[in-house]
Amino acid sequence: MRVLPVLLVLLPLLSLSGCGEPEKPAASDKEPKKHLVEIITAQRQVVAIERERTGTLRAVQEIQMFNQQEGRITALPFYEGDLIKKGDIVARLDGRLLEAQLARAVALRRKAEKDLQRISGLVERRLTSQTEYTRVETELAVAKADVQILQTQLDYTTLHAPISGVVSARLSEPGNIAERYTHLLTISDQTSLITQVPVSELLLNKLQLGDPVAVSIDALNGQQAPNDQSLQGKITRIYPNLDPVTRTGTVEIALNPTPDGAKPGQLARVKLRTQEAERLLIPFVALRRSGKGEYVFSVDQQEHAQTTAVISGLRIDEMIEILSGLSAGDRVIVRGFTNLRSNSAVNIVPSTAVTSAAVSSTATGTAQ
Questions:
Q1: What's the pTM?
Q2: What's the distance, CA 291 to chain centroid?
Q3: Buried (b) or exposed (e) across 179-193, using 16+ Cβ within 10 A?
Q4: Domains of the chain, first to last
Q5: Containing H/E element for 46?
Q6: Multidrug resistance protein MdtA-like C-terminal permuted SH3 domain location, by residue (predicted)?
Q7: Which of 160, 173, 220, 233 could bridge to 255 as Cys pair (CB 3.0-4.6 Å)?
Q8: Where are the alpha helices (DSSP H) in the chain?
Q9: Nearest CA to 202 among 323, 43, 82?
């Protein structure tokens, strides 16, 4: 057989044919694929922040009337809903026993006054000692104090209205025995209503006393026009302390004058609006968060993505306020985050309609 010579002839031919093929480039020599991203330019925009909060209406002043002297109730003339004026008698207790005790104390005081007048003459003529004069003088002082105490207790049997208002609660009836410090009735001044609402710490420092506030009351069925002056309130108090858990403070809004039909206990919707101010805004979708804090992907001059740490403020509609980390004019990536890393080469594509709508702003934004 002549197989061996044939093989020896074919081997050189195969080696020559392999040398003629071009070498394939190594995988490491391929140009990395650029990320497709959409960007916006960070801009400073003049906007006012608006936020709606709900609260409960209550009277600006509500007085609970308690008796300081026990006794039987002889008069309780007013009922719930009755209007009263400051100084009106709203309750009276039986004070006959105190009147008798007061009459006795007055008689003892008069006797002490005469005794002191008599003893003064004896002291001047040296017919009695100074010690006797001091004793009588003390008896007169005690008698005057007893009269004052009983007179005060007798005054407590008649209760006068400390404010003008409406009786919102009547808790007893004439003939009942009222022990000391019994709640007899409540007087409410409803000429002005107030409500208190929680406000975020980020918005709290942007509010000031006297700022106008739009208020709507659900119970009035929206009969008032949005610009009705009767539904315009103002900030009358900003409480200094914050809740350490929720990071919110309390703002008090006064509604004065009170619109027809508004009553304590009703639900009120309050729209807080800050003064217009210039803020650096970017779309909220551009903000990233990690265990180290907040950041965004920005694009540098070499068209590479860079991780930029930022501190955000209030969210306004679809935008977010940036307090530090960015400057106006910085290019920020808003879409194309999948597998995006710092220093990654990017290819910028035109923004979509959704992104463009998020960037456009109005004079007033709703904070979330």
A1: 0.61
A2: 30
A3: eeebebbbbbbbeeb
A4: 35-48+277-366 (2.40.420.20), 52-60+190-273 (2.40.30.170), 65-178 (1.10.287.470)
A5: strand 43-56
A6: 280-336
A7: 233
A8: 3-19, 96-124, 130-155, 201-204, 353-359
A9: 323
Instruction: Out of 46-50, 144-148, 350-354, give the one with best mean pLDDT.
Output: 144-148
Helices and strands per DSSP (H, E), number in the chain: 5, 23
Asked if 42 contacts 327 with a C-beta cutoff of 8 angstroms, the reply is yes
Cα distances (Å, whole numbers) of residue 272 to 10, 48, 52, 295: 92, 10, 6, 29
- Two tokens, residue 277: 């101010």
Residue pair 270/307 in contact (Cβ under 8 Å)? The answer is no
365 alpha carbon, distance to own chain's centre: 20
Concatenating the DSSP letter of every residue in 170-205 gives E---TT-EE-TT-EEEEEEEEEEEEEEEEEEHHHHT
Q: What span, in angstroms and rounded, lies between the C-alpha atoms of 83 and 165? A: 6
The fraction of the chain above a pLDDT of 70, given in percent, is 83
pLDDT tens digit string along 315-340?
Answer: 887 889 899 989 888 999 998 888 88
Phi, psi (deg, nearest 5) at residue 66: -115, 145
The token pair that represents 161 in the structure block:
């209205």
Strands 364-366 and 43-56: what pairing?
parallel
pLDDT value of position 97: 94
Percentage of the chain exceeding pLDDT 90: 43
